[in-house]
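This follows on from our talk about sequence and fold. Can you supply me with one protein entry, sequence and fold together? Could you add the entry underneath, on a fresh line?
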Amino acid sequence: MNAHSDVNVDENAAGILPHNSEEATAIATETTLLDPRFYTTDFDEMDRIDVSPVRKEWDEMIAKMAADPNRGHFKKNENWTTPDWENMDPKLKAELIDFLVSSLTAEFSGCVLYKEMKRRGNNPDICQLFQLMARDEARHAGFINDALREAGVAVNLGFLTKAKKYTYFRPKFIYYATYLSEKIGYARYITIYRHLEKNPDNMIHPIFQWFEQWCNDEFSHGEAFALLMKTDPKLTQSWQNKLWIRFFLVAVFSVMCIRDHLRPEFHKALGIDIDWYDREVLRKTSEISKQIFPIELDLDNPRWERNLLKLREASAAMDAAKRRGGIGGALGKVSAGARAGLAFASLYLIPVKANEVPEDGRLVPSY
C-alpha cells in the first residue's frame, strides 16, 4: 500500500460527479467488484436458526437493541452546517459524493436484506433481530440521503430497490460477509471520528460528527452476526469453513483498500494518510474478529502490502481498459484480470495465524 510508488495508477477513478438525483441513483445501481451489493439468500434456512445455545447473550443483546439508545441521534441540529457545494473543489466534491453514495448503498443494502428476512420469517427470535437491524440501517441510509439532497443528488431508494442487481449468497456467506462489513464499518467510522476530534479544521462535512453513535450501531450489528455464527460451531470450526473465512477476510480487506485509494482528494482534505488509515482500520477489524474467527490474517507479512499494491494496479488497469473499449480494451481487461487474480491468490496463500476463540466473545466499542 505504498502511496508514493512510481506506478502510474489512476487514483481518481471514483471521481465521477453526478449532477442530479437520476445520475446519483444510476451510480448507486451499478454492481461491480468494488461496489456495495444487494444480497438475497435462503431465508427458510435462516428462519430455522435456533438461538438456544446462546440464549443468555442473545436476550441481553436484543434488550439493548430494543432499548434503541440512538433513536434521536440521526437528526440535524445546530452542529449541522451545510457545506458550500457550489464552490467546493470539483475533485473533492466528486469523491465526497462518491463516499456518501457508496456509504448509503451499503447501509441500504443491509436494510433491504434485513427487512426481507423479517417479512419472510416466522422465527420470533430471528425476525425481531432483523427488524431491529433494518430500523437502524434505514435511519443511516435516510440520514446520508438528506446530506446528498443538500448537494442536489439524493438517491431514489425506491427505484434502487427494484433496479439494483441482487447477489445470492448462502446464509453462512451472508454471516461472514456481513459480520466483516459491520465490523470494518465500525473501524472505518471510528477511525475517522477520532482523527477529526483531534483535527476539527479538517471537518469537510458535518456528517462526520455523527459517526461515533453511528459506528456503535455497526458494532452491535456485528455482535449479532457473531452470535448467529456461535449457534452452530461448524460455521467457524470446520476446515472447509475456515477456508471460506480466510477468503472473506482477504476479499473484504483488499476491496476496502482499493476503494480508499480511489479517493485521494477526499482523504487529503480530511488530513488522513490513506496507507496509515487502511493499516489502522484493518488492524482494528482483525483484532475485533478474533472474537469469533479461529484464524487471523498476517497483516505484517511483507507479501501482504506488496500484493495489495499489485491488486490496486491491476484494478486501475482494468478500469482504464474498460474506458478504452474496443479490442485493445478487451485484451487489457483480460490481462489486468489475470494479474488481479494472481495478486489475490498470493494474498490468500499468505500463512494465517491461529486464534483461540474465547468462550464469551462479546465485545463493546472500545476505540
Summary: The CA atoms of residues 29 and 164 lie 5 Å apart. The radius of gyration is 20 Å. Residues 298-359 form one domain. The first helix runs from residue 21 to 29.
